[in-house]
UniProtKB/TrEMBL annotation, chain A:
This is Iron(III) transport system permease protein. Keywords: Cell inner membrane, Cell membrane, Membrane, Transmembrane, Transmembrane helix, Transport. It is a multi-pass membrane protein. The keyword Plastid does not apply.
UniProtKB/TrEMBL annotation, chain B:
The keyword Signal applies. This is Iron(III) transport system substrate-binding protein. Residues 1-24 form the signal peptide. The lineage of its organism: Bacteria, Pseudomonadati, Pseudomonadota, Alphaproteobacteria, Hyphomicrobiales. Keywords: Signal. It comes from the Bacteria. It comes from Enhydrobacter aerosaccus. The keyword Signal applies.
């Protein structure tokens, strides 16, 4: 039996290789060399994308002047962090991010469970609607919430006063609560996108076994479902917590007016709001934040070490749902409440405003389609859109491909150097965007002139790939960790090569996650501003820069029209994506 | 004619002839610049003015007149400054003209980012308030005033002086650009600190103004009635919101302002096009485009031709502006007073 199997394997390998035995010797040598060469190439690529700009920033933090200016090496930047005011800023940042991440992850897991594992009515539509807020530019939702929730004349407070006859204030978005709430509008759908497919991909027989062994529904959720979701949820938690520490818009809109400062507003002040920009302070603060985030990663690694989270096995399974009976209307109500609060109210406000001459002035004589016409006839918008689409499609595809490879190496192999690769892929996520943007500017501008990157679309493309890679790696790592190794081994036994196994087994099984990652990266590219504003050149402007120009130029209504256009695009993408997921599940 | 008068007449005729000859020579020289600029065919302009349709209109007029394509690169002042610095340090000379506020321009002049622009005929028309030199050419002026919500502030209660902001009735009702960050707020702080002293600002701090960094939205917040007063309002935004229930007021002491300047970047790849553009920018027609948009023009004889509702506001006296030397100290002072 054993020898027969071996014979079959060698036979298949020969057929697959389509080469005689002797010719396999140099090929084997090439393959032996291929792995270290591949790792070296990957290290080189990640080195250029993440370590190189970081090295420029490290120089900036240790030098009294930015690259290209005379100065001296010192630790003044780091020393200047050690003030009471900066420690308060740090505590504020960690506190705000922690609270919003805990609340968001609880809400996102609940929503994902409802959508993926229960018979709640209207799940298909609700799933699309729940994720919508993530794709709206934060500046627009901030404007919408400033109109809805300001203490003086906010719509919610006016309604409350009309309803109760009081002259009190129900909500005030200019507060800690406002900052956290606005951040949650992004982090909840973000985490939801991460975990919903993991819930869906889970073999329900594990839960069924738990129930058959006498565990209650809650015990099963906490002991089986939740634990199996740990790689995905901890990844989402860490990504979201770090993103929360790097969040800028929520703090600058709703925190700064009432004296709430966080790391990003301190960095923004130091490089854009002083006569003499202090890059040494900004980069030092960026690295201090990075150390904190790195400690979190170590914590996650320890938490997951030595545990198995396999939920997709070689055995067939039929995804099923928990029948909730009458409770399904309650879960439906929870989803609808979330959609009303995060989609209907702010997006409704934007949609309504886009048909009036001014935001918040709903008079019949101000009804207009001018903002739509203005966008339609704006050459700069179309040029920026074309650039953004090109960069979005190419960037998201390249980023996901890179992420799929990196995640494979870090989760499925024991190759030397894999931890270094993982760390290098993570680096860009741990540095606040506006500091990293400066790193790219310094890095690309100081390349030899023969390398045509600076001032071209390549500069934006490479920056976007670097910025998106941490997300793509996390998405793919979570998905790979759920796939049993025996499927992969089976593929190799049947003669498939490394690439074939990666593409036809792992990516094929993990492709719902790949598709989610692609959408996340694509819209990340559409919204990215910090690096774009520093790297775009005449003729290579992108949508986020054009939107900034319109915003600063006093045209928030036209920015709303673009925001709504982006939402329509999201709906289209999500519809296509969910159709594919459905057809895939049907195939399974 | 007496011999003395004859001598005087001859001397005058001779000097007129010399002047005429010099003018003709200047014209010929300038014509060479124009031809050289046309051959260069394009210019890249780094500007800290973002999303302004008025600037775009002037760029298009220049293209139409001379067939020279203008490629603007718009970003915030500090971003423009850092791009120029790192590009020049790396030996990349991409931009031709730098267009920014006088403070940032002054700092960049100190850093050696510019080169002399050469003679520019229209410099002779510059108003006395705004000085030009061999590097910096005044471009246009952003003037700051007060914005009130007409529904909430009765005509009798309208502030007439900047000091009226200290009236207890406005406590907690003033929306303001942040005095502790670069921009209109810092300009207002510095100018009024110089004019009225520290005491004025200590009293203003007691009025609990609400600071905002979302400057583009502050006018609409005022119009919606969130706050009855907003300062400092940039006059060039008035055209866009004049149909809303708001009114700009220039108090008696005048308008704080910030002068925008044009400078030629070091090793500009299209120096002649840059020079021609600077001259074009100062023509009455272009300055009137800016003035009708609410910017103060920098050349004489333009304010008089501005549209009726803006003319008295632009004609109000200039109160003062910032200086790069004092800027950081003033920001620090604002932080202490408005902590």
């Amino acid at each position: 039996m054993g020898s027969a199997a071996l014979w079959q394997r060698s036979d298949r390998a020969t057929v697959a290789g389509a080469l005689p035995l002797q010719a396999d010797l140099p090929l084997a040598r090439v393959r032996r060399l291929g792995r270290p060469a591949g790792i070296a190439a990957l290290l080189l690529l990640l080195g250029f994308l993440s370590v190189y700009p970081m090295a420029m920033l490290l120089y900036g933090s240790l030098h009294s002047t930015p690259p290209g200016m005379a100065g001296e090496f010192n630790l003044d930047g780091y020393a200047s962090l050690l003030t009471q005011a900066n420690l308060i800023v740090l505590a504020n940042t960690v506190g705000i991010s922690l609270v919003k991440t805990v609340l968001s992850i609880a809400l996102a897991i609940l929503l994902a469970w409802i959508i993926a594992r229960t018979d709640t009515p209207g799940r298909g539509l609700l799933e699309v609607l729940i994720t919508l807020p993530f794709f709206i530019p934060p500046i627009l939702t901030a404007t919408a919430w400033a109109m809805l929730g300001n203490a003086q004349v906010g719509t919610i407070n006016l309604f409350w006063r009309w309803l109760t006859g009081s002259d009190g204030t129900l909500v005030d978005v200019y507060s800690y609560g406002g900052v956290i709430w606005h951040m949650m509008q992004y982090s909840t759908p973000f985490i939801f996108l991460f975990v919903v497919d993991a819930f869906r991909a889970m073999d329900p027989s594990l839960e069924e076994s738990s129930r058959m062994s006498g565990a209650t529904r809650w015990q099963t959720f906490w002991r089986i479902t939740f634990v199996l979701m740990l790689p995905v949820t901890t990844s989402a938690f860490i990504l979201s917590f770090i993103r929360g520490m790097e969040s800028f818009e929520s703090a600058v809109f709703f925190g700064t007016p009432v004296g709430i400062n966080v790391i990003t507003t301190a960095i923004y002040d130091s490089i854009t709001q002083r006569g003499q920009p202090d890059y040494q302070f900004a980069t030092s603060l960026g690295f201090a934040a990075m150390v904190l985030m790195f400690l979190l990663l170590v914590l996650q690694s320890r938490l997951l070490k030595g545990r198995s989270f396999t939920t997709v096995t070689g055995k067939g399974y039929a995804p099923n749902v928990t029948r909730l009976g009458g409770l399904r209307w309650m879960t439906f109500g929870i989803c609808v409440a979330f959609v009303v609060a995060t989609v209907v109210m702010p997006i409704g406000q934007l949609l309504l405003s886009s048909f009036f001459q001014f935001f918040g002035f709903y008079q019949l004589d101000m009804l207009t389609l001018d903002h739509y016409r203005a966008i339609w006839t704006n050459d700069e918008f179309w040029s920026a859109l074309a650039n953004t689409m090109l960069l979005g499609f190419a960037g998201a595809t390249a980023t996901m491909a890179l992420g799929a490879i990196v995640a494979y190496i870090t989760t499925r192999t024991t190759w030397p150097g894999r931890r270094l690769i993982d760390l290098m892929a993570w680096l860009p996520w741990m540095m606040p965007g506006m500091v990293l943007g400066v790193g790219f500017l310094w890095g690309f501008a100081t390349l030899p002139h023969e390398i045509p990157i600076y001032g071209t679309l390549w500069a934006l493309f490479l920056a976007y790939v670097a910025l998106g890679t941490p997300v793509s790696v996390r998405v793919m790592s979570g998905a790979y960790q759920q796939i049993a190794r025996d499927i992969e081994e089976c593929s190799r036994v049947h003669g498939a090569g490394w690439w074939q196994t990666l593409v036809r087994i792992l990516i094929a099984l993990a492709w719902p996650a790949f598709a989610v990652g692609w959408v996340l990266v694509f819209f990340g590219i559409m919204r990215e501003l910090s690096a774009s504003i520093l790297l775009y050149a005449p003729g290579t402007s992108v949508l986020s820069v054009t939107m900034l120009k319109m915003w600063v130029g006093g045209k928030p209504e036209e920015v709303s029209v673009i925001g709504l256009f982006m939402l329509a695009l999201v709906l289209l993408f999500r519809w296509v994506q969910l159709r594919f997921i459905k057809s895939r599940l049907n195939t399974l | 004619m007496t011999p003395i008068r004859r001598k005087t007449f001859l001397a005058m005729a001779a000097s007129l002839a010399v002047a005429g000859h010099a003018a003709a020579q200047d014209d010929a020289e300038w014509q060479k610049i124009v031809e050289a600029a046309k051959k260069e065919g394009k210019l890249t302009l780094y500007t800290a003015t973002i999303g302004s349709p008025w600037h775009k209109a002037v760029f298009q007029a220049f293209e139409k007149t001379y067939g020279i394509h203008v490629e603007p690169l718009e970003a915030r002042a500090s971003e423009i400054r850092e791009r120029v610095r790192v590009e020049q340090a790396a030996g990349r000379f991409v931009g031709d003209i730098h267009h920014n506020g006088s403070t940032t321009t002054g700092l960049m002049l100190r850093d050696g980012n510019f080169q002399p622009h050469g003679s520019i005929p229209n410099l002779k028309n510059i108003e006395a308030t705004y000085k030009a030199d061999d590097i910096r050419v005044p471009a246009e002026v952003i003037s700051y005033c007060l914005l009130i919500n007409r529904s909430q502030v009765k005509p009798a209660d309208e502030p007439k002086s900047w000091k009226d902001l200290l009236d207890p009735r406005w406590k907690g009702k003033i929306l303001s650009d942040d005095f502790r960050a670069l921009g209109g707020g810092a300009v207002f702080f510095m100018v009024t600190y110089d004019a009225f002293g520290k005491e004025f600002h200590e009293k203003l701090a007691a009025q609990k103004p609400v600071f905002s960094r979302d400057i583009a939205n502050s006018e609409r917040r005022t119009a919606r009635g969130e706050f009855p007063l907003y300062l400092p309002f940039s006059l060039q935004d008035y055209n866009q919101i004049k149909s809303l229930p708001v009114k700009p007021i220039v108090p008696a002491e005048g308008r704080p302002y910030i002068l925008f300047q044009l400078s030629m970047l070091k090793n500009a790849p299209h120096p002649n096009a840059a020079r021609l553009f600077m001259n074009f920018y100062l023509e009455h027609e272009q300055q009137l485009v800016f003035a009708n948009a609410g910017y103060n023009p920098v050349v004489t004889g333009v304010v008089e031709k501005v549209v009726d509702d803006l003319r008295p506001l632009l004609a109000a006296k200039a109160m003062g502006t910032t200086s790069p030397e004092k800027q950081d100290a003033m920001l620090e002072l604002a932080k202490q007073i408005y902590s």
